[in-house]
Amino acid sequence: MFDTPVDGWYTWLGVALAGVTVLGVTLGLPVAPPPTATDIATAVDATATSERDAATTVDVDAEAIRLTPRGVGVRGRGGAARATFQYGPVVQVVGGRLDAVLDGVEPASVFASPAALKTAAIEARTTEPEWRPAPRRLRVRHVTWGGVDVTLVG
Description:
The chain is an alpha+beta fold. It has 4 helices and 8 strands.
C-alpha cells in the first residue's frame, strides 16, 4: 500500500521536463523593453515642419540606429522598432560639411551657394542606410536658405 507504483517514475520525468521547459521560456524572455523609435520620429517631424530654422536634440535609448530618408529604426537588447517620418525626406549626416551645418554653423559660411547645399543633401540622401552604433543624443536641424529646405539628422 505504501510502495511506489512501478509507473511513478514516468510522472516524475514529466514534471521535471515541464519544469525545465518553464525555466527555459522564462530565461529566454527579454529583460529590457524594446527601444522606441516613435520619440525620434516625432522630434524629427516637429523640427522639420517648423516654419523657421529650428534645431533640437532627442535622447536615444538604443544600441544601434538606422536612419533612412523616410524613417528610423532602432535596436536594443529588448528587440527592435521602426517609425516612419510624416515629413520627409530627411538627410542623414555622417561627417563632412553637412555636419558643420547640423552643429549650428550658418550654411552660407560652409557652402558657396544654396545649390551647393542642395547637391550635398542629395548626395547624402543617396548613400545606402546602414546600422550604426546609436549615439546618446540625436541632433536634428531644419535649414532653409535661398529656396533650399533641408532637415539634417545626425
